[in-house]
Amino acid sequence: MNLIRELWKSLIESLRGLGAITRFLLNLIAHTPRALVRFDLIVQQVYNSGALSLVIIMLSGLFVGMVLGLQGFQLLQRFGSEEALGTAATIGLVKELGPVVTALLFAGRAGTALASELGLMRATDQLSAMEMMAVDPIQRVVVPRFLGGVITMPLLAAIFSLIGIYGAQLVGVQIMGVDSGSFWSQMRASVDLRDVNEGIVKSCIFGVACSLIAVYEGYYAIPTAEGVGRATTRTVVTSAVVVLFLDYLLTAAFL
Amino acid sequence: MFAGLDMDIARGRVTAIMGPSGTGKTTLLRLITGQAVADSGSIQVAGTDMRTVRRADLYVLRRRMGMLFQNGALLTDLSVFENVAFPLREHTDLPERIIRQLVLTKLQAVGLRGAAPLMPGELSGGMTRRVALARAIVMDPDILIYDEPFVGLDPISMGVILRLIRRLNDALGLTSIVVSHNVQEITTVADTVFLLSGGKVVARGTPQELQSYPSDVVRQFVGGLPDGPVPFHYPAQDYFSELLAQGEVH
After folding, report:
1. Would you list the domain boundaries of chain A?
2. How far is CA A200 from the centre of its chain?
């Protein structure tokens, strides 16, 4: 009986949390037109979330592509179709690994930075000070960070996929000896716009989800060292679970 | 938290709100500034009812208010200059030349014109408070609110802030509200003092009147006595019976 009560309680809590974050998202959307007037603030956040994440995204993309090249070569060799490595690696990267791994890395690098920055601003009264200066912190601080993340994610995912394909080519063609012409021509022949679109849609939706979770957790962080730490941890954990869950739904929707 | 609290804050004067820790001084400031809404009663600020004010009107009213937070609350990603310029950039379309002049004037008033290019992390506690004060007055407010402005300051910085409170109030024709429990310091600049305890005003008057106020709470607070109406010990069961009792410590 106690177990049922606990489950019911946690279900209600989860629904309440979902309602709160949805309301927060609607609030951000309502503030977006006015925030767009100050586009320089959004550009600054694209730099903070995007440019500062470039190294980790590029390195990860390269290694993921190289692993994909190795594994793909081994598997395809069994069927005597190593030439299809370019297709396999590109589809895997553009449709799946690019958006998902980028979102997970974004949550770990930019998401935690956003959550802790907003949490510390709350803890040190910077958000209250803005309100006292008749400046709406949602519009001035939160929306530019949210939009910066939303704009950044598809760009980072594209860079990740691009570098990944290069990594797969590096291993497949340069090391394992797959024919370069076959690698590129099969890829161009088999990968169509639909595959690319799937990756773009996924990365855009992951961008909204990860940025929303980060700014929500940071904005409502308990204003203590422990509270900010918890908000940062929750940002990573929630983002990872939500991204993987959404990935399943979107993959099913695109079938 | 409050019951039967009745206060009038006079225009153009320095009013100190004092009281033991936990009596709700900061909460009272939050109610006055509209950062929190009272469950009942009435709070009027410059003719506006803070319980029913709409958000847009509240923001208009706040442009007439300045507030100095306990820790200064400077925006850590902006320099001292940009912190002071922040309200001007957000609320006006003044040319850069005018903004520069206004910011330097306010920084000069608090003695920190030379610190304009520094970042908040490079400032001492007293300097942070003074920059925050420059930012609070940059829009020429009618009301200036100080939340515990002396916490953690050395005697020199404290003296500087005290002088600034009085000087700015008189020079700019402000209405100043200072929340503090530094009895000796604040009574040197305040025109009127309210002493809060148990959710209501237990004493009001000039600093001189407060010194001889016929109340145990006031005597304990002004004299800094460790025990009295505000007890030294947090409520607990009998000391010896708890010591002798077997079982777990709570």
Report:
1. 2-254
2. 12
